[in-house]
C-alpha cells in the first residue's frame, strides 16, 4: 500500500480513535467545551464524538473521501476554541499537563493541512 493510499486511512483511524474516546472517557472532553456554547457540555462531547466517527467513515470510503476530508479540515478548525480553553484552564496545572495542553494548539494547523491534502489527493478514486 502506497503512502498516498495509507494517509486517508491513518486520518480515518485518528478520527475514529478520537470519536470512540469521546464516549469511553467523556468527562475529560466535557471540560474543554467552551462555556459560551448552549446546552450541556456532555451533549457537545457526544455530538463531537459522533461527528468524528462519521468523518472517519467518510474519509475511509473513496466515494465520500474528498467531501469528508474537507469537512474534517473544517471540524479541526471548529474545535480549536476547545483546545484554547483547555490550554487556558490548565495554565496552573503541573508543567507536563500544561505543556501538553499548550502543545496541542500548534498541532491543529498540520491536522487541517493533512485533511486538506487527503481531500486534494485523488489517489485514483472516482
TrEMBL record:
Secretion signal span: 1-23
Methylamine utilisation protein MauE domain residues: 9-78
Protein's membrane topology: Multi-pass membrane protein
UniProt entry keywords in alphabetical sequence: Membrane, Signal, Transmembrane, Transmembrane helix
Transmembrane segment boundaries: 68-88
The keyword Signal is assigned to this record: yes
Location in or out of the cell: Membrane
InterPro entries (alphabetical): Methylamine_util_MauE
Main location: membrane
Family annotation (Pfam families): MauE (PF07291)
PANTHER family, alphabetized: DOXX FAMILY MEMBRANE PROTEIN, MEMBRANE PROTEIN-RELATED
Name used for this protein in its record: Membrane protein
